[in-house]
Structures are given as C-alpha cells and as structure tokens.
C-alpha cells in the first residue's frame, strides 16, 4: 500500500449543473431552454423524465451548500442557467434570476467555498435555437452579451469563470447524433456548432478578462483517450481522426490558435469550414488560467474496411446517426470492462495517460479535473445507508491516477467529483445516479452515501490509501 499525498493547496470540489439539479423550471421569470423542449418531447428521455423539479436545488440551495461545507470542500462548480438570467437569450436580463446566483455565490463565500461558475452547461434559450442554434454565428454573439451580463453582476465574487462545459457534447450529441437537445442530426451543422461554440468561448473569455481581471478563466472539455485495436497504420489513422474530432477540434483553436489541418481535410466532404472567418481563431485563443478536464472512460477504435460487420459500441451500428461526423470509416469496439451503470468502461490509467499527453502537447497549461465520477445501481440498505463500494473504488483509482500524473510533474491543481447530488442525467433521466449524496425524488431528502464519507476523509487528510 502506497499512500499518495496531495498538498494543502490542492483544490477539492464537487460539481453540478443547473438543469440537472435546480428544478423550478417556470419560476421567477425563467425562460425555456432547449432541454425543456427536448425533455418534454415524447420519446427523447428515459421514462419521459424532465428537469422540471429535479433535485429542487432552487429551493434547497442553503442546505445543499451546508452539505458541501460539511464535506470540507474548498470549491464548488455549478452552472448558471442562461434562460433563468436572460429569458429570451438576448436583451433583457431577469433580476430574479441574477439574484438567485448572487445569493448562491454569497452563500458559498460565507461558508469559505470558492465559487467556480460555468456559464453554459447545455441549456441554450429556446429562442436562440429557433433562430438557428449553435450552427448559427449569431448565437456566439448572443453568448458574449450574456457573459457580459453575468460577469457584470457577479464577476468580482466568482473565483473561476468557466465559459463552456463539454462543447463536444453540445455540438456532436446535440446536432450530430441528436441524443442531446436540440436533437438535430445534421453533420455539417454539428461542425458549424463546434466553431461557434469555440468562438463563444473566445468572446466570453475576453469579457472575463476585461470586466474582472482578477478572476481565473477556464473552459471544461471532455477529452477522449482514444486507443487503436492494433498497431496497424490503418488503426493508427482511425485514432488520429477521432482525436482530431474529439480533442483537437477544441484544443487546437483554444490553446494553439488554429484548427488542425488534418481535421479540416478529414471533414472536407461534410463542410468547407467557410464559417470560420479570418481573425476567429485568434479570438478563440484567449489565454486560459486553467484547462478543465472531464474524464469518465476511454475509447477503443479500429479502421473499418466497409464490409465486415460493425461493432455497435458507439451507436454506429445501432442507430442511423453518429456523433463522429466524417469518420464513417472508424469502428468503435466494445471494451473489456468492468463497466459503470452507463455502460462506460472503467479505465483509470487512461486518465494518467491523458494528463501526461496534455502536458506534452500543451506545456505550461495548468490543469484541473472538473468532472470525474460514476453511476452505479445504488441500493438503500436496511440500515438506511448506501454502501456504494464500487463508486468509492472508482473514485479512489481515478484520484490515484491524478496522483500518478502529479508525481510525474503534471500541473493538476484540483479535482471535482461528479456529482454532489444524484440528478437529472440528461437522456437517462433519473435512472442513473452519479451523486455522492443520494436524493430521494419523492421526499427530496439527501443522504450521504458511503462515498461521501470516504471523500470527506480524503479531503481532510489529503491522503489516498490503497
Ligand atoms: C458529462 N458521452 O456528460 C456532463 O458534463 C454532465 O452533465 C453529466 O451528467 C456527466 O458527464 C455524466 O454523464 C457527458 O456520451 C455526457 O461521451 C455524455 C458523454 C460524455 C459526457
């Protein structure tokens, strides 16, 4: 057993997102988002679940902040609901919505917890989708206006501003495969969405720099660790293509000021990328204080010859639409397991690999794990406890993977567990539970799972055993 230590300065946190926990979908002047529309469309989410009530955090936030304080966490990552603060997505701001987040931020500061605010965790105002959504350039300009409004209202009290959460999901799941809102399946639009999300990040990043120079600026990406099934040149090329679409489509413009040439070439049959205007890439490359990394699982691919049977691991075979725009010649293979309740392969060493790769490719860029965690089929025991040993094991091994990267000199400054609470897991509704705190959706009662007790001890000691 080697004890792995984290310094006093390491930031321990937990993360949530507005639509997944707040509920109060029609209260105090909140507008509608694409997730309201999508979840209320029959057949889109498991069991027809919606975020209308969710974990009722909008009314229970003081107790929820008490839980964060009792866990001993130094930071809390939450998101601001765009339609709550700017109901139509442009023009008028809603004072009641801004006030909710002002109280939340003050409540965190009173408890000595650092607010890490995400501007966009997928809840685009429906009006903006009706006007074209992320495939339309104007959405990025509207985002700049929204950013100025919230940074103007909260800026000096928010420690870290995160522009976007996982633009990969917004673009490819929202507009490519359609398994996320708004549920469109238009490959060219997905790539236009990639660019306008990147542009929105750059524009909002500049707003943060101008309005609140002392705040930290970040973005959160769900980076993929892609492995090839064999050492063949064809499989290596499949890895390269998926890496371009998943990772470098965002890392390139954000950290290096340009889209990778291979990405543009690979997708030339889908789009000519003429929506990228001169000067855009420079704008997108606003320097980041910290890059947020969300990591859950890894990806295994092989080159597809066009004839042999496809594996259905990513929906290529199972459904007509794939998020992997322009990569029809790549096959996604089932992984060895074990799996979480999401069907995601558990692969902690891939997280170390990812962090080492980021250090190698983007030297000097500080990193933060802004999400990591697991859904399992939790059961409430006769003693009323939730003995989620598998979640503890998942967290222990992934935090160990972070320690391994740090031991090799990678500048990882913090770790946020996903999630503080069980919540609305998008297309999977309330069926998949990621919380370290259980939510009883009938009573809204919160119960610490064993993983919450375990995390509290880790945070208190900074020592990981096992
Ligand atoms: C992330 N994928 O979502 C989100 O940031 C959270 O809101 C979410 O609850 C959490 O991870 C767990 O799912 C993802 O298909 C959704 O690769 C889908 C994917 C990745 C991340």
List keywords for this structure.
single chain, 466 residues, alpha/beta, three-stranded mixed β-sheet, 15 helices, globular, binds 4-nitrophenyl beta-D-glucopyranoside, EC 3.2.1.21, GH_1_N_CS, hydrolase, glycosidase, Glyco_hydro_1
Q: What can you tell me about this protein's structure?
A:
This protein is an alpha/beta fold and 466 residues long. Helices cover 39% and strands 15% of the residues. The strands form four sheets. An eight-stranded parallel barrel has the order 2-3-4-5-6-8-11-12, surrounded by five helices. Strand 13 and strand 14 (445-448) form a beta hairpin. Residues 17, 20, 165-166, 169, 222, 294, 371, 418, 425, 434 line the site of 4-nitrophenyl beta-D-glucopyranoside. 4-nitrophenyl beta-D-glucopyranoside binds at residues 17, 20, 165-166, 169, 222, 294, 371, 418, 425, 434.
């Amino acid at each position: 057993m080697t004890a792995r230590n984290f310094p006093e300065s390491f930031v321990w946190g937990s993360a949530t997102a507005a639509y997944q926990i707040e509920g109060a979908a029609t209260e105090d002047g909140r507008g509608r988002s694409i997730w309201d529309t999508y979840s209320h469309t029959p057949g889109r989410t498991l069991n027809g679940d919606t975020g209308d009530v969710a974990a009722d955090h909008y009314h229970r936030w003081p107790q929820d902040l008490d839980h964060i304080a009792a866990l001993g966490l130094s930071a809390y990552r939450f998101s601001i609901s765009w339609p709550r603060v700017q109901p139509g997505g442009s023009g008028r701001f809603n004072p009641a919505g801004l006030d909710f987040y002002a109280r939340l931020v003050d409540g965190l500061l009173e408890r000595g917890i650092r607010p890490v605010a995400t501007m966009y965790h997928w809840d685009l105002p429906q009006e903006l989708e009706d006007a074209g959504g992320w495939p339309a350039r104007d959405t990025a300009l509207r985002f700049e206006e929204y950013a100025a409004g919230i940074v103007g209202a909260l800026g000096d009290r928010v420690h870290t501003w995160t522009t976007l959460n996982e633009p990969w999901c917004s673009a490819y799941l929202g507009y490519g495969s359609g398994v996320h809102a708004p549920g469109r399946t238009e490959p060219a639009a997905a790539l236009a969405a990639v660019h306008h999300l990147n542009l929105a990040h750059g524009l909002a990043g500049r707003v943060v720099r101008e309005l609140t120079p002392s705040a930290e600026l970040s973005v959160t990406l769900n980076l993929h660790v892609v492995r090839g099934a064999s050492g063949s040149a064809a499989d290596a090329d499949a890895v390269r293509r998926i890496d371009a679409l998943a990772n470098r489509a965002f890392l390139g413009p954000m950290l290096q000021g340009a889209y990778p040439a291979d990405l543009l070439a690979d997708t030339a049959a889908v789009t000519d990328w003429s929506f990228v205007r001169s000067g855009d890439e420079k704008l997108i490359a606003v320097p980041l204080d910290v890059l947020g990394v969300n990591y859950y699982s890894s990806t295994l691919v092989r080159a597809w010859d066009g004839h042999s049977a496809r594996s259905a691991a990513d929906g290529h075979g199972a459904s007509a639409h794939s998020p992997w725009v322009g990569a029809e010649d790549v096959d996604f293979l089932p992984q060895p397991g074990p799996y979480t309740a999401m069907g995601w392969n558990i692969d902690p060493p891939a997280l170390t690999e990812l962090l080492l790769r980021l250090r190698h490719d983007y030297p000097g860029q500080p990193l933060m794990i802004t999400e990591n965690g697991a859904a399992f089929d939790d059961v409430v025991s006769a003693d009323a406890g939730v003995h989620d040993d598998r979640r503890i094991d998942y967290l222990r091994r992934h935090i160990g993977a972070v320690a391994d990267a740090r031991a090799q000199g990678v500048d990882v400054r913090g770790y946020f567990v996903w999630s503080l609470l069980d919540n609305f897991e998008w297309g999977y509704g309330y069926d998949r539970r990621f919380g370290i705190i259980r939510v009883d959706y009938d009573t809204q009662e919160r119960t610490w799972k064993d993983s919450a007790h375990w995390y509290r001890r880790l945070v208190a000691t900074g020592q990981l055993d096992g």
